[in-house]
Write a structure and sequence with these properties.
The protein has 773 residues and is of the alpha/beta class. It contains 24 helices and 26 strands. The protein has a seven-stranded mixed sheet, with helices on both faces. A seven-stranded parallel sheet has the order 4-5-3-6-7-2-8, with helices on both faces. Strands 23-24-22-21-20-25-26 form a seven-stranded antiparallel sheet.
Length: 773
């Protein structure tokens, strides 16, 4: 790492030689190599002879202990979830038992489900390697194919008529084809013996909840065909693998966990670059480009993970342009992202493996599961939305446990990145997050209901309840109560978006060119008509809203808009809560949130003058789950604790939550009602809830403490929008200040740790004494 950092300085990708106040801040750590736990000869002797024979042909002199344990569990016929770190041989753990299953039954099939196309292609490549060495060892052909949206119609027809032994697919095709056109898959489904769900940590939040409902529908459909396949699930970064597997599938799975975390030596450098606000994004992009060239000069095969498709393209172009002055080959540099032709994506992936490409700039499209043993270095251009994603990206390099890996993180100018950059140990030592999905989310059940009714022949029958789960089955029965079974009325399967968040996505269009996309929530809050919208360092003005796009025009960089929003909550139903000394209550329950847009102000940042003001009226209504904090009497909190400080506490909760609760930082909204008794709301932006607010009730002191730490590390003196000022201040409210806000937050934490407690009883709608342990 010393040599790499010296090269970064020489390439002007690192400027840490100036004074501490002006230069880049760099934190370094090394995670030493940890050898895996190998299986003993006695362990290997318990496996069928074919397993070690094939392993040796693949070049493995032995197997890891957790691989043997997983194979034994799978061969016993039980449902299994395997938890082991990246590059620990998970694929081999379920592939070799699958070889045996296919050999025993010539009519057997397997379905491999992956969350992303690139992963399916990579896993199929690994399966083909295994199948090749099995020629002459097993009698049955171990043929396989990919079935995703890129497959041509004629190939789809052939796959259904003459299905291969193994199919690789994704959740979207599971819904649209295997369920939507199940009658065409009869040959494949009647012999389905094994379903493998890899990278299950990717199934979280909105996407994970949809996948859980989808899998329940799949298993219910298979049961109606008298098909009951064995399930095998795998994950690398999930702190509650067994629980998550059960919530995803509705089945109790046997957990196999690696006894120790095998890993290569990993060298980390977290860099907080000192870049002035003027042309920040342009300079930041140049730093990342130069860092990639420095790695290239060191002979390191490098993946650069970027925050957007546009950043990928622009950074790759800039790196190619800069390569010549350092005598480096620009042809060894390539971008990679969604939207490329499938053949081009496969060509880039193979180029990484072969060495044709030494540096590849990518979005999250290469984040999970891709096994490219040549990769040495990972550059994180900005921190991902969650630690899950960060570890997945880090896990793409150093795939051999005895090969060093190098990780560079370049923080962007936001509080989330800056906190991580200055708290490297908090990131490295953070336990794996427990994944949350909302399997009782009625809003999403409603979206799946038409498909479930069609697939179940008009009305779910009692024998499907074990597969659908109690919540989904009861919801379907209540929705269909008193209605006649509806048959042969097929819903439009393409209407359901599994990953679409809380609404539609809109394309950002400038002069006919698509710049990116945003959600309907972002459209409402940030891209209303007339808004100044900043997109990677450039200012645009929103001209119009179309059916699925937002039209932009270039705007002066010194202009900004300030939206006028106000929030109203109604229909609060408390489900749980804790009260401290009758002065502080923290609660969890159902909320109806009305977010209202009343217009905006156009401000000239050079003078602070309001140059235009427009009025409008638009509202969004959503039924959500929320956590809220209520102070009965603020005056009892001590001197200096005023209502304005509660606005600062709102922001502390907002910025602290993503570090504590496993969620995307955009999954949460906040609002403070200063009318007595004042309340601070932290609510989910996903209708129906995914468990984030319920988790917040349990860990709110940790969330608040994390927010305090972020604010204290912020470079501002009195408080700023990055650390303390909420995005929407109430009318006529002044901005909260750092010192009194932190003091109030610490007072709340002290009260929570020392005061007597009561628990809310939803049966009686009253507070009851705290239960004794």
């Amino acid at each position: 790492m010393d040599e790499l950092l010296a090269t970064l300085r020489r390439f002007d990708a690192l400027r840490d030689q100036a004074s501490e106040a002006q230069g880049d801040a760099v934190l370094r750590r090394v995670l030493p190599c940890q050898e895996p736990v190998w299986a003993s000869p006695q362990d290997l002797a318990r496996l069928p002879p074919l397993v070690p024979k094939v392993a040796r042909r693949l070049g493995f002199s032995s197997l890891y202990a957790h691989q043997v344990a997983a194979m034994e569990a799978i061969l016993s016929g039980v449902d299994v979830v395997l938890e082991s770190p990246t590059a620990s041989g998970k694929t081999l753990s379920f592939a070799l038992p699958l070889v045996l299953a296919l050999q025993e039954d010539p009519q057997a099939h397997a379905l491999m489900i992956h969350p992303m196309k690139a992963l399916s292609h990579d896993q199929r490549r690994q399966w083909e390697e295994i199948a090749a060495v099995c020629n002459g060892v097993v009698k049955r052909p171990l043929d396989s194919w990919i079935f995703d949206g890129d497959v041509e119609y004629e190939h789809r027809r052939l796959l259904k008529e003459k299905p291969p032994a193994v199919l690789f697919t994704n959740p979207e095709m599971l819904h649209a084809s295997f369920l939507g056109w199940q009658e065409q898959w009869t040959k494949f489904l009647k012999g389905l013996k094994l379903i493998v769900l890899d990278e299950i940590h990717e199934y979280r939040g909105y996407f994970g909840t949809n996948v859980a409902l989808l899998l329940r529908r799949l298993l219910a459909m298979l049961d109606q065909r008298d098909v009951r396949p064995q399930l095998v699930l795998a994950t690398a970064t999930c702190g509650n693998a067994q629980e998550h597997a059960q919530r995803l599938t509705g089945r109790c799975c046997t957990l196999v966990r690696a006894e120790s975390t095998a890993r290569p030596p990993r060298h980390f450098a977290f860099i907080n670059p000192a870049i002035p606000d003027f042309k920040y994004h342009e300079i930041y992009r140049l730093r990342v480009a130069r860092a990639a060239l420095a790695c290239m000069a060191q002979g390191l095969n490098t993946l650069v993970f970027c925050p957007s498709r546009r950043f990928v393209e622009e950074a790759a172009i800039r790196t190619r342009e800069e390569a010549g002055q350092f005598q480096l080959d620009p042809e060894k540099i390539a971008p990679y992202r969604s939207g490329y032709d499938p053949s081009l994506r496969r060509e880039i992936e193979e180029g990484l493996r072969s060495g044709r490409y030494q540096v590849v700039f990518s979005t999250n499209a290469l984040e999970i599961g891709i096994d490219i043993g040549r990769l040495d270095a990972c550059i994180l251009a900005g921190f991902p939305d969650s630690p899950f994603s960060a570890w997945q990206r880090i896990g793409r390099v150093g795939r051999r446990w005895d090969k060093p890996a190098y990780i560079l993180f370049y923080a962007m100018n936001n509080p989330f990145d800056r906190f991580v950059a200055s708290n490297i140990d908090a990131f490295l030592n953070k336990p794996l997050d427990e994944i949350l999905i909302g399997i009782d989310n009625e809003e999403l059940m409603e979206k799946h209901l038409p498909y479930l009714i069609f697939e179940s022949g008009g009305k779910p029958r009692p024998n499907l309840k074990p597969h659908l789960g109690e919540a989904f089955y009861d919801f379907a029965c209540q929705a269909m109560a008193g209605k006649k079974p509806v048959q042969h009325r097929k819903p439009y399967y393409k209407r359901l978006s599994l990953r679409g968040g809380s609404g539609e996505n809109y394309k950002l269009v400038y002069k006919g060119q698509e710049l990116g996309d945003i959600s309907d929530v972002q459209r409402f809050r940030e891209a209303y008509v007339g808004a100044i919208y900043h997109h990677f360092g450039k200012a645009y003005r929103v001209v119009a809203h179309g059916a699925d796009e937002i039209e932009l025009e270039m705007a002066e960089p010194h202009l900004r808009t300030e939206g006028i929003f106000y929030t109203v909550t109604q229909g609060v139903e408390m489900l749980d809560g804790i009260r401290y000394a009758e002065n502080l209550a923290v609660c969890y329950g159902k909320l109806t949130v009305f977010e209202n847009f009343a217009g905006y102000k156009l401000i000239d940042t050079r003078s602070g003058e309001v140059v235009d003001e427009q009025r409008s009226q638009e509202a969004r209504r959503s039924n959500v789950r929320g956590f809220w904090l209520e102070v009965a009497d603020l005056s009892r909190m001590g001197d200096g604790c005023d209502p304005i400080g509660l606005l600062g506490v709102e922001q502390l909760l907002r910025i602290g939550a993503p570090f504590v609760v496993p969620c995307d930082r955009h999954d949460l909204g906040t609002w403070t009602n200063l009318k007595p008794p004042p309340m601070i709301y932290l609510y989910e932006t996903i209708a129906g809830g995914i468990g984030v607010a319920e988790k917040a009730l349990q860990v709110w002191p940790t969330i608040l403490q994390t927010g305090i730490e972020i604010a204290q590390r912020c470079q501002c003196q009195h408080g700023c929008p990055s650390c303390l000022v909420p995005p929407r201040l109430p009318a006529d409210a002044i901005e909260p200040k750092k010192e009194p806000t932190v003091r109030l937050a610490q007072t709340l934490l002290k009260l929570a740790s020392s005061a007597s407690r009561e628990r809310y009883d939803p049966a009686t709608h009253a507070w009851a004494p705290w239960p004794r342990e």
